[in-house]
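YM 10:42: SPW repeat-containing integral membrane domain-containing protein sequence, as discussed on the call
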Amino acid sequence: MAESSTRAWTRPHDWAEVVLGVVAVLTPLWADTDTTTMWTMIVLGALIALDGLLSLSMPGLVYGEGVQVVLGALLFVAPWVMTYTALDVAAWSSWIIGALTAIAGLAALPVANAVHRGGMTTAH
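YM 10:58: structure's back
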């Protein structure tokens, strides 16, 4: 299992980030949104998915996990900042996807650090 965390395209944390980003991008298809909400979810979701793909392709890229935490936090606060808390499905999607993205980024950070240093000996 430890070996799979050091190889490209095998880390579950990063796959979760890609899926979360895609779900955020697609949320306007089933949620009531206005233009600002739609573009906020599409842009942040695309950035989350793209950064997840980058982290998948380069497992030792530590800053990518930090970016995920920041993007997750931005998506989490977006309903308040972009004023779409009244759009229930979109707001809850932002809060849940944002929190899960930040958690996935934080969980992947120690693994990425270990791979970066070349010291990955146990699965975390």
